[in-house]
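Appendix C reproduces, verbatim, an entry submitted by the partner laboratory led by Prof. M.T., so that reviewers can inspect both the input and the predicted structure.
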Amino acid sequence: ITVKSCDIYDYAKHGVDLNGGDRATLTSSENLVTNNRLHGGYGLLSRGVYMEGVGHTVSHNDIFDFTQEAIRYANLNNAVIEYNDMYEVQLLNADGGAIYAGRNVTDIGNIIRYNYFHNIGGHIGAHGQQSIFTDDGEIGPAIYGNIMYKGGLPNFPLKTNGGQFHQIYQNIIIDN
């Protein structure tokens, strides 16, 4: 499945909902979401992209104006999130990330690289908003080459919470 060069906006939940591949054999879905504008979700749980499965690529998208995450994933292996511009997300959530995953020790092999996060969060809540947040024991993805400018409120653009095996390197954090 390829979703390419679309303008997706004004919906209640997920702009793109990906599920595919075979987790038992780690057979890739080869799903691709690229060169899209996802914005203006109006529901309290609106997000740009939601992913489950194996082998998705989300790249070169402009994702903005969401109450929740730009990208959220669960039950996911071998996905690549790259070259996306994410901003003005996490506008109502008091504890989350522009990219968020949590509570799954089987989410292995994911890569978050070369994304630009800016102006993340809408208010200071209980635990804040981050550019990237792996929560509650999430097995860590490789996180590298990202730029986070004003990437979280109050001051945490990148947060892990109890997970293992994170590979975090060569990211640039500005004005946090």
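The first strand starts at residue 2 and ends at 4. Additional entries are available on request from the coordinating office.
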